[in-house]
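Subgroup meeting minutes
Present: P.N., E.W., G.H.
Scribe: E.W.

1. P.N. recapped why we're keeping a running log of single-chain structure predictions: easier to compare across weeks, and new members can see raw inputs and outputs side by side.
2. G.H. added today's entry (287 aa).
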Amino acid sequence: MYREPVGRLTVRRPVVRRAAGRPATSRPDALAVEEPMELRVDGRALAVTMRTPGHDVELAHGFLLTEGVIAGADDLVSARYCDSVDDTGTNTYNVLDVALAPGVAPPEVGVERNFYTTSSCGVCGKASLDAVRLRTRFPPAVDPVRLDADTLYGLPDALRSAQRIFDSTGGLHAAGLFTAAGSPLVVREDVGRHNAVDKVLGWALQHGHVPASECVLMVSGRASFELVQKAVMAGVPVIAAVSAPSSLAVELAAEAGMTLVGFLRGTSMNVYAGAERITQHAAVGPE
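Output recorded in log:
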């Protein structure tokens, strides 16, 4: 039912390399593939995102979960590629239509919510902040998980070691779901940081890990409001990033009872919310 084609993840293109004091050279270079995907729900177009092909069904599950449309894997009954062919008549696998289970309310798309997405900013054009403060069915505040600071220190390297496509292209974001002991459950890469998170949370939904109790969501870049919102919707109690969070991300994490870690590098970190969950020598950021 959810069988996906194996798409191209990288392509090779010629590049001219120049460096000071050296002659120019030409050689092929590996690039991460970026293609549009249109998500349809029961035949109705809902969203278009620029993504790295692969794990599209996970992407659909994660997107619909974090937008409050579904709460469990059983809320979707099928997924199929359709209505997308190139000039040779070959299926491009860039249109995915999913069917909701009976009794699951379809998403409402109106002037308040614009589901056009890009690889850089995620869901854009939301009419107001209130429109994206979705109420989660899995509040992180009730999760009693505690983490050792040393476990968190090891997550960036664990995430980086699983970035297979990044090694050849240097052009992908990554997200990973880890246990409180630091064991990886799933890692996904994508040209869009929000897509990588949706793929991880979609996997979690399909494999019975939502709510993501006693887990850590590790992301390779910054922690934006949207990524925190997605984590809140999936019941993730801890989100960690190697770079900075935004002010709204910190505000939402605090409101939701989530632990938010930024600048997680080496043996230091800034804890912007929920510091009580981290034991031993966690470093707290400046006020």
